[in-house]
Design brief:
Number of strands of chain A: 14
Strand content of chain A: 25-35%
Largest interface: A-B, 49 and 57 residues
Radius of gyration of chain B: 56 Å
Oligomer: heterodimer
Largest sheet of chain A: 12 strands, mixed
Shape of chain A: elongated
Structural class of chain B: alpha/beta
Chain lengths: ~325, ~1050
């Protein structure tokens, strides 16, 4: 896997994004370039559909052993309707209800298993296996450079997980099996790595927090289409590297770099820092510089790897 | 959120080798990464199959994987092996299949089976044809096949009333109407009927109680009757038992006993007296007997006897005493006699008394019995009358029971109760039925709004004309891009490429069915060269349709094989590869080391590697030996054939690839590999080019006994012949419509003999093809040779059929009897009353029309033909009732006689003449007139074809296009009668190049056709016995 890092925006861009995102009351704020894996595989999908009036009517009649000629349907249409029932596994031998047919008659709906190719998105994360990520929509992405690896077992494992996790993670609950293996060309799993530039926001959700992703457009703005993904409480599982607070030395180093870039007195780089959500409080040592000369609405990016923490600088002292 | 899936498109978009590589990679890695797939796979560039189609139409068929049928051909009844193979290949093809069939070879039948089989496999099929007739011809064969739910889309301006009933039922509107006007009302009516029935049943309930009550009463009465009967039976015994009790009989018996006692007493007294008298008689007899000797002795006076002395001493009165004794004895005896008589009388009296008594007793007994029994019988009768009344009452009640109610088997309580139980079961069943019917009606009412949509889902065969599909509200363009699994395009040869591409977008696979365009090279007498791949012989605007192009792309035409055998001087040369004339100078000969008489000729152009181009044998080398040598030593299968339709045939023990039709028994066998033989057959004279060996490959034969099967043979052929063997084409060459002799003649005339007759060729008493020359040539026979334009034109052939002599070729024109109605100059050639009824413009031939009508009159007067026509009508008289429509149901489409003319004006003229013919007025024979296009997708028993044209000096066309004439020639099943001017035909056959409106290619087709006809007129042709010249008198 090739690590890809974000193209870091400047304070002005961050300030503009913040103006757009502040309404979400983010607790923390990152700028990230995520490596997403588009995984296309043949899935067995369970579908429940309501019986339509014809199906229900026919099943009722067949269950009651009503002779077919008493239905007075156009014979080819009747044959086609019976075929559709047989194809759905509701009748056999032309006229006999199966157990599924009887259940369907009681429930008023029929559950069938169909095979179709489905696309699943996974996001690379620190650790051996990528994590499933439920995209709310497919944003414009770029092909990620370099080789990637993906183990289909990862996808199969997702299918096996409990419904509660699937509900939280947004994994499609109708997928009951992934068809993998050799022997059938349809079983081939196609993996496409894609790079997604996004801002990540930890926002309050109920008692805990959620992680919301917004796409950064190639023009440098935020995509107006709303979140591209939203991970609920267990977002730390998907983004474990964002769970913990950055170490103090990382903050200090990032701040020093910022001081250098702004050509401020180097001593300012040693100022005491206190990160707090989206704010980094900087305690200015007394007499070091005139506070009025320090830039306002400045943003600092700290961190490494795929996601950088963004904080607004607040001067103290 | 729906993400597009790439893999399926991608996989179908790459060649088979790439597919194999990708699958192998995926197998080893577990997944396939985007960078490993060819090109930029993030988005497919378009529907892959459409790309494939575009490539195919552009002549790029090299990426196709050969299609081999791994499974045995489906068991389809009513199809021949070719037709079964066509169905199997159409179903198995992953992309395209082209089925080409000559007229009458069963293309529509094959299309119908493809639809059925595809539908049976759960596929949705789009059936399209350029004409409604073609569409309906296929659809008519679908009713009664439960797997198919077809919908026939209406063409623009088409009225359902114009359709055959069975096809009309298939329109969307009719299916909806059936639901609205039959299914729903019938379901409601059934519900109402069941409701009424149930009400009636409920009303039965008290009747059953009454019935049961009556039955119980009847049972009681019956019991009484039985008791009386029993008692009646006991009456005699009872009377007998009552004898001792004071009954008259008893009294009589007592009286009788008294009388008997008295009689017996008297008889006893008499017997006693008689006994006493008998004793006295005995005493008297003894005394008499004792005295009798004494008396005798005394009476005789023989005193010297002891007896005399005894009598003496006994007394003197012995005779007296003897006399007395005798008298006494007689008295006693008389008395005894009297008493005995008295006794006897008494005994007789006793007997009579006994008899009287017995008689009296019996009479009294009988009387008693009768009386008593009568009394009982009277009682019984009364009871029976009551029972009868009860039963009558029960029957009356039963009559009041609702219809269908079970009736008791008998009027016993048990039977009534059983019937009542059945009635209750029936009630329950009807209640259940009513409930189900109610649910069904409710369901139907509920489903009513969605029925059209549901019907769209049910339909698995959508049939439409090319023009009708786009505008169809359910399945047309407006309905959205619905994708079908299979497109079956009937009469694909009539469809433009643009239309086809538009249709192809709507299906994943395509099956194209059509007739071959009759190429000049296919027709007898044509010297057109065999087409070569990629070589365009005509202007682009006149190129064959996409159907022909696809056929050429996909079909293995063995004429394209590069090997050529030639006799060049003293050498028999096999050219292995084509050599451009300019390179022939680079040929170098080299003798074979161990066979110096054989030369290898190498092509050694500068800066190129030498290549073996030819092998030359001594001219005397047998062909089989030369071919075997080349195969053995060079592994070169040197097949050269003039046949265009390779056909796989499987017979017991052999798999045969037939490359050219075999016309004679002569053949040379070439042994190639173990179990593989090449059969050489003689070339027709007109197929022989300069230097030809006179032989070509007729077939390759594989011996199943040596381990060959179809699949292995196909591989072998592909390997050795180099033909791609894509397996996506099937040629239907067995003519099923026509009778064998007619089919063979047409095949020879039109299809280069490719078409097979269905059945053995038997020469009947009459030829299936007649040619009636107009004007008549009969008068010309008498002229001396060279006199007159047609001098000595006719001669009798050995077969007894008249043919025109080879001098026909020297003719320069026809009789000129055709009339252009626009020309005022010739207007007087037609009777004025007829002329007034004819159109203002058009071509007619009055003489020919007269000849045709006369021939028609003769035909309908022929008893043999009338019998045959009746049989034909019976065969085609099965009604089309909309539900089940037998293939030959559409009587209106199969007349006995089709009168065809190539020009509408001639059709009108013929119609007028036929209308005026008294002989044709009341004929039972069904006659129909029209131009050839009116008989598209139809057949007739006999076709009378008026060629119409008769021009004096120049070559003229026959109809709008050669296809029309071919259509006219291929409609008849039994007999074809042609009317034409031989001179005009000869002139036409001699003219090379464009004529009138025909472009050079069409003109050449027509010329070749005319030449073929002229050939038969001259007695040249493979089936001369099938052709007969028939003079029409008076013309």
């Amino acid at each position: 896997m090739t690590a890809i890092g974000p193209t870091l925006p400047g304070s002005r861009a961050l300030q503009a994004w913040w103006a757009e995102l502040a309404g979400l009351q983010p607790r923390r704020f990152w700028v990230a370039t995520l490596l997403l894996l588009r995984v296309e595989a043949l899935a067995a999908v369970s579908r429940t559909r309501s019986l339509d009036a014809f199906q229900r009517g026919l099943l009722v009649q067949l269950a009651a052993s009503v002779p077919l000629d008493a239905l007075h349907l156009d014979p080819p249409v009747l044959a086609a309707l019976l075929r559709s029932l047989a194809n759905a596994g509701l009748i056999v031998n032309g006229l006999v209800l199966t157990e599924a047919g009887r259940q369907a008659l009681v429930a008023g709906s029929v559950t069938t298993v169909e095979h179709e190719r489905r696309v699943f998105w996974f996001v690379e994360r620190p650790g051996p296996l990528p994590a499933f990520l439920s995209l709310l929509r497919i944003p414009p992405m770029t092909a990620a450079p370099g080789p990637v690896s993906f183990d289909p077992a990862c996808l199969v494992e997702c299918v096996r997980r409990d419904p509660a996790w699937k509900a939280r993670a947004g994994f499609p609950v109708d997928v009951i099996e992934i068809c993998v293996g050799a022997g059938d060309w349809r079983y081939v799993v196609l993996v496409q790595p894609q790079a997604l530039s996004a801002v990540l926001l930890e926002v309050p959700a109920g008692q805990g927090s959620a992680l919301v992703g917004r796409v950064i457009t190639p023009a440098g703005g935020l995509d107006g289409g709303g979140p591209v993904f939203q991970c609920e409480d267990d977002w730390r599982e998907v983004f474990p590297d964002l769970a913990d607070e950055l170490p103090a030395d990382v903050w200090q180093e990032a701040f020093r770099n910022w001081v250098r870039q702004k050509r401020l007195p180097p001593e300012l780089g040693d100022a005491a820092l206190q990160p707090s959500g989206t704010v980094l409080e900087v305690s200015i040592p007394a007499g070091l510089c005139d506070r009025g000369r320090l830039p306002e609405d400045e943003w600092l990016l700290a961190g490494s790897g795929r996601a950088w923490r963004a904080v607004r600088l607040e001067w103290r002292g | 959120m729906v993400a597009p899936c790439l893999w399926e498109d991608l996989f179908h978009n790459v060649p088979p080798s790439e597919q194999a590589r990708l699958l192998s990679l995926a197998g080893s890695q577990g997944v396939l990464y985007a960078h490993q797939v060819p090109g930029n796979s993030t988005a497919p560039s378009g529907p892959p199959r459409r790309q494939l189609l575009t490539a195919l139409l552009a002549g790029q068929a090299h990426n196709l994987e050969p299609l081999r049928l791994s499974t045995p051909l489906p068991e389809l009844t009513g199809l021949d092996a070719q037709q079964r193979e066509a169905v199997a290949r159409a179903l198995a093809t992953p992309d395209v299949c082209v089925i080409r069939g000559y007229p009458g070879t069963g293309k529509s039948l094959v299309a119908a089976h493809i639809l059925c089989e595809a539908a049976r496999r759960g596929e949705r099929v789009l059936l399209v044809a350029p004409t409604s007739a073609a569409l309906d011809r296929v659809l008519e064969q679908l009713p009664g096949r439960p797997a198919v739910c077809p919908v026939r889309c209406l063409s623009v301006g088409e009225q359902p009333e114009e359709m055959p009933p069975c096809v009309r039922r298939m329109t969307f509107a009719e299916r909806v109407r059936f639901f609205e006007e039959h299914t729903l009302p019938t379901a409601r009516a059934r519900l109402d009927a069941l409701g009424k029935t149930r009400e009636g049943r409920r009303a039965d309930e008290p009747l059953w109680d009454e019935l049961l009550d009556l039955a119980r009463q009847r049972l009681q009465q019956q019991a009484q009757i039985e008791e009386l009967t029993r008692r009646r039976e006991q009456v005699p015994a009872q009377v007998d038992a009552e004898v001792g009790t004071g009954s008259p009989l008893a009294e009589r018996k007592l009286l009788h006993a008294g009388e008997l006692a008295r009689t017996d007493q008297q008889a006893g007294t008499l017997r006693e007296q008689i006994g006493r008298l008998a004793g006295e008689c005995e005493q008297a007899r003894q005394e008499r007997d004792r005295l009798a000797p004494l008396c005798e002795a005394r009476r005789s006076g023989r005193w010297w006897t002891l007896g005399w002395w005894k009598a003496w001493f006994a007394g003197g009165d012995a005779p007296t005493r003897h006399e007395e004794a005798n008298k006494r004895l007689e008295q006693k005896q008389a008395e005894a006699e009297r008493l005995t008589q008295e006794l006897q009388a008494l005994e007789k009296q006793r007997q009579e008394q006994e008899q009287h008594f017995q008689a009296d007793a019996a009479s009294l007994r009988e009387e008693a019995i009768t009386r008593r029994q009568k009394e009982l019988a009277d009682q019984s009768a009364t009871l029976e009358e009551q029972v009868r009344r009860l039963e009558e009452g029960a029957r009356e009640i039963a009559r009041r029971l609702s219809q269908g109610a079970p009736l008791p088997a008998e009027w016993t309580p048990g039977a009534v109760e059983a019937a009542q139980a059945q009635w209750r079961d029936l009630m329950r069943q009807e209640e259940h039925d009513q409930e189900q019917a109610r649910l069904w009606v409710e369901g139907l009412e509920q489903a009513r709004p969605e029925f059209p949509a549901r019907l769209c889902n049910c339909v698995n065969v959508v049939a439409a004309t090319v023009s009708g599909l786009a505008s169809d509200p359910q399945f047309g363009d407006a309905a959205g891009p619905e994708l079908f699994d299979l497109l079956v395009l009937e009469e694909a040869d009539q469809v433009t490429e643009t239309d086809f591409l538009a249709l192809a977008r709507r299906a994943c696979r395509w099956v194209l069915i059509g007739e071959p365009s009759i190429e000049p090279g296919d027709l007898r007498g044509s010297a057109a060269p065999a087409p070569s791949r990629g070589k365009v012989l005509r202007p682009s605007a006149l190129r064959p349709g996409f159907f022909s192009r696809l056929w050429e792309q996909l079909h293995d035409d063995p004429r394209r094989l590069p090997r050529r055998w030639r006799l060049r001087g003293e050498r028999l040369v096999c050219r292995l590869h084509p050599i451009p004339p300019e390179q022939e100078a680079w040929l170098q000969s080299e003798p074979v080391a161990d066979r110096p008489e054989i030369e290898l000729r190498l092509l050694t152009p500068p800066r190129q590697a030498p290549q073996l181009a030819e092998v030359a044998f001594p001219a005397r080398t047998p062909l089989a030996e030369a071919r075997e040598y080349l195969f053995r030593e060079l592994e070169e299968l040197t097949v050269q054939t003039s046949g265009s339709e390779p056909i796989w045939q499987e017979s017991p023990g052999f798999v045969v690839l037939r490359l050219a039709p075999r016309r004679g028994a002569e053949a040379i066998r070439v042994n190639l590999a173990p179990g593989v033989r090449e059969w050489l057959i003689p070339l027709d004279e007109d197929q022989q080019e300069p230097g030809s060996t006179g032989w070509h490959t007729g077939a390759l034969e594989f011996d199943c006994g040596k381990g060959w099967d179809r699949a292995r043979a196909e591989e072998w052929v592909q390997q050795h012949l180099g033909m791609p063997g894509l397996g996506r084409t099937v040629a239907l060459t067995t003519a099923h419509r026509m009778q064998p002799a007619l089919a063979a003649w047409l095949s020879d005339l039109l299809f280069d003999g490719v078409c097979d007759a269905c059945g053995p060729l038997v020469n009947g008493p009459t030829s299936p093809v007649e040619f009636v020359p107009v004007p008549s040539l009969a008068g010309e026979r008498s002229r001396p040779e060279g006199e007159g334009r047609r001098g000595n034109l006719l001669r009798a052939s050995d077969a007894g059929t008249a043919t025109l002599s080879p001098r026909l070729r020297s003719m320069k024109g026809g009789a000129g009897v055709e009339i252009d109605l626009t020309s005022a100059r010739r207007g007087d050639a037609i009777p004025s009353d007829l002329r007034a009824l004819l159109p203002a413009a058009g071509l007619v031939n009055y003489l020919e029309a007269q000849a045709l009508v006369r021939r028609l009159e003769a035909l309908v007067a022929d008893p043999a033909f009338l019998a045959a026509a009746e049989r034909w009508q019976k065969q085609h008289a099965a009604p089309c009732n909309g539900d089940a429509c037998p293939p030959a149901a559409h009587r209106e489409r199969c007349p006995n006689v089709a009168v065809l003319a190539l020009y509408p004006a001639q059709v009108e003229l013929l119609g007028l003449l036929i209308g005026r013919s008294a002989a044709l007025k009341n004929t039972p024979v069904r006659i129909e007139l029209g131009v050839p296009s009116a008989f598209r997708q139809r057949e007739c028993q006999v076709a009378l074809v008026s060629l119409t044209r008769s021009h004096t000096h120049r070559a003229v066309t026959f109809g709008e296009a050669p296809g029309h004439l071919i259509q006219a020639l291929t409609r008849a099943v039994e007999r074809l009668v042609l009317f034409g001017d031989p001179g005009t035909l000869v002139r036409r056959s001699q003219w090379q190049g464009a004529v009138d409106h025909l472009d050079p290619v069409s003109a050449e087709r027509e010329r070749a056709l005319a030449a073929g006809l002229v050939g038969y007129l001259q007695g040249i042709g493979s089936h001369p016995r099938a052709f007969q010249l028939h003079e029409s008198r008076g013309v």
